[in-house]
Amino acid sequence: MLKWQVCENRLGDYLASESTKTSPKTIYATAQKIADCYHLAVKDAIPKRNPGFTVVQATFIGLNKLPVQDGFHTVLKRLSKSKSESETKAIDWSPAAAGILKYWTGKQLLPSAPPPVTPWLDVPTEFGTAPPPPAAPIPIHTPPLIPPSMVLVPGTLKPLDQQLRDAFNKKKPRLVAKFAVIAFQNHAKLISGMMTWLNTAPPVAPPVPTPFPWTGIQ
User: Fold this and answer.
1) Which of 187, 196, 107 has the alpha carbon at shortest distance from 144?
2) Percent of the chain scored above 90 by pLDDT?
C-alpha cells in the first residue's frame, strides 16, 4: 500500500516549520526528511496488477532510503552555493531523480501469494480475454532456468527531474510538498519488472518458469 498523503503531510509540515536550535533545518536534515517521507510512502508497495490477472502479491526486498537522501543532499548543497538568482533547471535536479531511480534499481521481489494466473472477476471489456499461462514443456532432464523476480526498469530520469524542479521552485512549502509527491507518483507508474514462478498447473510436466510482467506499483 502506498502512503502518498502521509508523505505529503509530513513533508509539508517539515518545510513549513521554523528552524530551531534543537531541530535545525540544515541541508542534510532536509534531504533526510525528504528521503524519510519517500521511503515511508513506498516501502510497503507491491507490483501493480496487470489487466486480466489477479494482483501480484509480492514485497520488494532491500529498499534503502540512502540513495534518495544522497541525491537530494547533492542538489540542495549545490544550490546553496549557487550565486545565481534565476530559477533552477531540470538538470540541476538530476542527482535527486537519479537517487530515486537507484532506490529501485535491481530490487528483487519476495512472492507472498500463488502466481497470478486467475483472471479478474468483472474484467472491463476493453481488456478483452486474459491470455492463458504458458504451458510449453521443456526437454526432459533439462533444469529450468528461473529468472529472478525483480525490478527491470526503475523508472526514467525524465520527466522526474523536471517535475522535481517545478515542485521545489514553488514559493509555498505545502505546495512544494504537494507537487513533489505528484512527481513521485508519476514516476511510480513507470517502474516495471517481472515476476517468475514455476508453473505446475496441468498439462505442464515438468514445471517450467512462467514470467508475469508488471508495470507500476500500488
Assistant:
1) 196
2) 53
Cβ 52 vs Cβ 120: under 8 Å? yes
Helices 173-188 and 27-42, axial angle in degrees (round to 10): 40
pTM of the model: 0.80
DSSP state at residue 37:
H
Neighbours of 154 (CB within 10 A): 20
Copy the grid coordinates of residue 132.
492463458
Distance CA 217, CA 49 (A): 8
Structure confidence by residue, pLDDT tens digits, 7-58: 999 999 999 998 887 878 899 999 999 999 999 999 999 888 666 555 557 8
DSSP string, 101-153: HHHHTT-BEEE-S--S-SPPTT--GGG-SPPPPP-PPPPTT-PPP-PPPEEEE
79 three-class SS: helix
